[in-house]
Structures are given as structure tokens and as C-alpha cells.
Write a structure and sequence with these properties.
2 domains, three-stranded mixed sheet, alpha/beta
Amino acid sequence: MHVFVTGATGWIGTAVVGELLGAGHEVTGLARSDTAALALAKTGARVRRGDLDDLDGLRDGAIDAHAVVHLGNKHDWANPAENNRTERAAIETLAGALAGTDRPFLLAGALAGLVRGRPALETDVSPAVGPDSMRGGGENLALEYVEKRVRVVSVRFAPSVHGAGDHGFLAAITAAARRHGVSAYVGDGTAAWSAVHRPAAARLVRLGLEAAPAGSRLHAVAEEAVTTREIAEAIGRTLDLPVASIAPEDAAEHFGFVGRFFATDMSASSTATRELLGWTPSGPTLVEDIEAGAYA
């Protein structure tokens, strides 16, 4: 397949591009800067210059491809309304370009806020509906295109897609530990995150693109639940820092934007995903990656 990828030079996108190329697919990646374009070209992928606000470019990229993988996101935590607007417009443009073709459209989803009190399942429907909801209700918006003959697949990524070079949530939590001289968790530290090693997540994206049925919700999850206290203790051991609890009301000040996520349970099962696609995640665990110095 010829696959058009947004977010192609991001943390997950870079691994996905490599996975797709390694499996014999052709890739065109969206690049908004000269640096990103050069890095993408070095992988052997084609480059389409533009960004998520270039709707004409997104439409043309989708029309020219056999499949679309939408991983791009502005991640503007200070302006969620703009994030939501951009996400909805991109989904409507990309999926709209594929309408009536039965071609695959795979997009990045999230596990936050799906359920409370138990690990999330693939059958759990996202409560995020409409432009004012988390990520603009993008997953549910995209799934509406199944009825328009688009093979929509949502991949809900674990909050920690970990590995050396990760600059996401775990990097921010580690930076807070360095800044304050203490590796902290929130409350009693029993909130738990699911986790997956980055190459395993990229492999799931490829498998989902190749074989997942229309309307599938896949969970890129290797470890169902790693408690936030376990994460803080691993960071403390690695940086030789004390480990302590902080009150929930102090989480935002201590951690910054990631504080509200670190206090939230985001655990999930991937049993149905593994059975559907024969996916067996491999690689180090989250704690093993931390202790090996991936965030040091």
C-alpha cells in the first residue's frame, strides 16, 4: 500500500514510518519544517510539505494514497479549543477524501476518560462526543465514516509509549523530579497507567492498517497497569532521588500540565486486540526502560 501519514516525524510516527517501510509499504509523510522534511526523506519516505491546518494538502495526500494513518496533533495544552478544532477539521478532511473507497483510515485515540474503576476494554465507547469534548470527539467523529465506506480503525495508545528519546508524559514527570529534587506520585500512588514499548505500538499500527475490520477499536497496550508509585520509585532509583507523595491539589504546580494525567487512572486491557490481529507486544517493560536510563 501507499500510506499517507500525518505526524510522521513525531515520537510514534517515526516508528510507524519505519515499520511500514520495513514491511514493504510506500509512505508519504506530512512535514511542516525543513528539518522534518530532511529527516523523513532520509528514511526513504516521500515528503508532503504542510501542516494540519493545510486542509487542501491533507485532502490531496489522502486522495493520492491507498490508506491514511493520522497521528498528527498540535498538543497545544494551553489552547484545547484550538486542538479540538484542528483535530475535527483534519478528520473530516482525511476521512471525507476516502469516502466511498473502502480504504483504511487509522487514527490515534486515547484511553483517558473511557471508564472508571476498571481497565478499559476495546468495546468501551468513548464518551467524548462533539467539538468541546476531549480531542474534539475525534474517535466518534471518525467512526461515523464507516457508514460512508471508509475502513476506520482507532488505535488507542497507552499513556506511556516508552523508549529512549521519548519526550512525552514520562519525560515531563522525570523533568519535574529533577526540578524539585524528589520523585513524586500523587496521593497514595495507586492510580495506574498502561504502557507499551514504542516498536510494539508501531507494529500494531501496521497490523491494524493491514487487517483490522472497519469500526475496530484497538488498544496499543502491553502492560495493563503500572501504578504511578511504581513509576515514581523507578525514576527515584534511576536519578538517586527520594520518593514522596504529594497532595492532589498540588499536582499541577509540581508536575505542570502532566499533573492532571499522572493523578488519573488510565489502565486498559488489550486482550481483544491481541486475539483479533495476533499481536504479541514485546520489548522492555516501562520500569525496565526507566531503569535502563531511557529518561535519564
